What does this fold into?
Amino acid sequence: MTKYVIQGGKPLHGSISISGAKNAAVAIIPATLLVNGVCRIENVPQISDVTLILNILQDLGADIRTVNRTTVDIDCSHIHNARVPEGLARQMRASYYLIGALLGRFGSAQVPPPGGCNLGGRPIDQHIKGFVAMGADVDVRGGYIHAQARGGRLTGTTVYMDIVSVGATMNIMLAAALSNGLTVIENAAKEPHIVDLANFLNSMGADIMGAGTDMIKIKGVDRLGGGTYSIIPDQIEAGTYMAAVAAAGGEVLIENIIPKHLECITAKLEEMGVEVEDREDAVLVRRTGTLSRANIKTLPYPGFPTDMQPQIAAALCLAKGTSVLTEGVWDSRYRYVDEFRRMGAQIQVDGKVAVIEGVERLSGARLRACDLRAGAAMVIAALAAAGPSEVSNIHHIERGYEDIVRKLSGVGADIRVVVTPDDGQAEASAG
Ligand code: EPZ
It folds into this structure.
């Protein structure tokens, strides 16, 4: 078993460069299925979810060539298979984008139901509602979602989303890019990765307008051709390191980011007494004094992101006063609380609300990551705590954070990767 061993209590100083956005990459890579020609994708994060989605495309027959550490060439022109093999797709959430992309390309898709973090119920009814409105028959049988466009090609229509869904908005964009006529998505999600997917598709020849607003118009085109595209920086990775500075103290320049995407996070950190200075493509984050309490409700963009809720909670555990967190997106995103309590945090959870009574210090403990952002939050809590901590189940963290140990070590954190002797291996690497 591989785990992180962290000696807490050291303020962070230096700079961290942010990688490409996970939630953009896991949509843009399947989007290459719609393209006739080579897509050169730059700023691809090296995380296990990206490896998985690339492997799925390769299994389908894509020609994939690594150009350098963050650039990959993907050519899906020769794929003739709309059935995704079962094994890998069930390990990740974003495999649902294969339904929209394959349906758009072939008029048919057979994809196993997606996996991903356990955050309570994760239905995909809004995705299916969109496909059906565009003329697809969708049913689940034999462990697969089967989608088939009547007449072989989807037809544009207006789809009103009953709830704001990132995944459904992107999936309908994928399905509509090569469809017949105009598709309008109303009540669309507005996250930066939605704009990034639209920009990618437009740069390959699609006709999409309004991404980033709550109404997106997609005029179907007959063909997309190859090109080069660079993925946006990861808003949540940046926010995670900002929260780490808030919790552990110090001063860190977070580089290669788009400050505008971080405004919702910056505003809360400032309210908590953290200094944040915007630069052109960086933010300088400094925390020297005591943290103040804050109330936070997670909401779709541009609200405070649910994917930052556990990390900000780690900092609020050490803030002066009582903070109230309200989870506005997922049913169950407080599974990390029991682990925090073992460090001395005082948190009460009632449904979607958590009340955090700030304490003067957390103490190191053995922690088990239960999902991606919860795992990142445990790393943050451990960096701020007195004494040593261990974080296990780190495969959750490595799904979404490139080189987290190297990046944190680079700003003075005492964090090492350790492989426990029970599986017969010595320490793997130290950072
Ligand atoms: C994406 O999940 C992200 N995942 C999640 O990031 C993120 O938490 C979430 O968006 C919200 O920002 C990827 O991009 C791969 P949704 P997604 O559809 O698309 C309900 C992380 O840590 N809903 O916006 O699955 C749903 O239950 C991960 O990086 C329906 O009811 O989220 C939830 O309550 C975790 N029916 C809400 O909408 C549907 O058909 C928002 O979900 C779809 C969603």
Remarks:
- The CA atoms of residues 132 and 138 lie 7 Å apart.
- The radius of gyration is 22 Å.
- Residues 235-248 form the longest helix (14 residues).
- The chain has two domains: 2-19+234-430, 22-230.
